[in-house]
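Protein chain data
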Amino acid sequence: MIVRRLEDLKAEGGTKTVGAGQVKTVRYLLGDDGAGFSVSDVTVPSQMDMVLHYKSHVEANVILGGEGTVEDLATGEVHELKPGMIYVVFPQDRHRLRIENGMHLISIFNPPLIGTENHDADGSYPAPPAT
């Protein structure tokens, strides 16, 4: 069993910045924890516009606060994002995330993140290590 508090993780220096150093993330659960997925608390500032493409991961995001949009760059379809919503992107889903009024979300990755990832030039995280 694993039990962790956000305040404790922050106090232990668990806050990491990604997304050109502007996005703050606290990683609750990582690959070494053995759950098969990772969970992060993510805070994105207002007026962010990011093109992302997680080529090796499925990412699910539960919106806790803030507003924005996610655009499927293959189809041009745009979805509003508000608290109480989830959006899921798959390895084929190159997408644009636009944040209007800041956003707070819980992000889940499968396969799990190891904790040192940061976005590549194409908005991707590196492929997970082979097991």
